[in-house]
Amino acid sequence: MLWGLLFKETRETKETGRRMAFEMDQRLADSSHFIENWDLCRVSLRNDSTWPWLYLVPRRDGISEIHDLAPEDQALLAREIARAGDVLKTLYDADKINTAALGNMVPQLHIHVFARYKTDAAWPGAVWSVQTPEIPDTEQDNNAEIQKLKNRFGEMRGT
After folding, report:
1. Which superfamily does 2-117+135-157 belong to?
2. pLDDT per residue as tens digits for the range 47-58
3. pLDDT tens figures, 105-134
4. Which has fewest Cβ within 10 Å: 1, 80, 92, 153?
5. How far apart, in whole angstroms, are the C-alpha atoms of residue 38 and residue 40?
6. Boundaries of every domain in the chain
């Protein structure tokens, strides 16, 4: 029940003034750890230490494609993707940042933003082209990574 509360929120839409619930797809929730909410996206750390990997999930109901977002949300999404990539590049000294919005397995719009290295198992191919087992972090490691990311996000905001 607690997880359901963490991944649900209520917001008021500009168009109707009605309160609507945002709910993160359970598969995304189960495979990641919440970091914080940005203006548009819920930001989570994927529970796999193979690559530093964030999920950005726009907090809009019924959206499965970027073009389904309102134009102002599309622009905001681009800025938030850039912010996530910048943080991963600087914090983890990545050789390359990959960004993807596939939706084949989980139709809810979510953006994968993750660090790549010339030494990783999939380089230079797509991470999905290699079958590497996920390596879940320990709770202590997750908490440390989340705090490191929160600190960097706060520095970018000036807080």
Report:
1. HIT-like (3.30.428.10)
2. 998 999 999 999
3. 999 999 999 999 999 989 999 998 887 778
4. 1
5. 5
6. 2-117+135-157
- Amino acid occupying residue 15: E
| DSSP-assigned states of every residue in 19-35 | EEEEE--HHHHHTEEEE
Of 34, 42, 26, nearest to 77 by C-alpha is 42
**Contact status, residue 83 vs residue 149, Cβ threshold 8 Å:** no
**Residue closest to 38 by CA, chosen among 81, 2, 92, 8:** 81
Cis geometry, peptide bond prior to residue 124 (ω within 30 degrees of 0): yes
3-state SS assignment for residue 4: helix
pTM above 0.90, yes or no: no
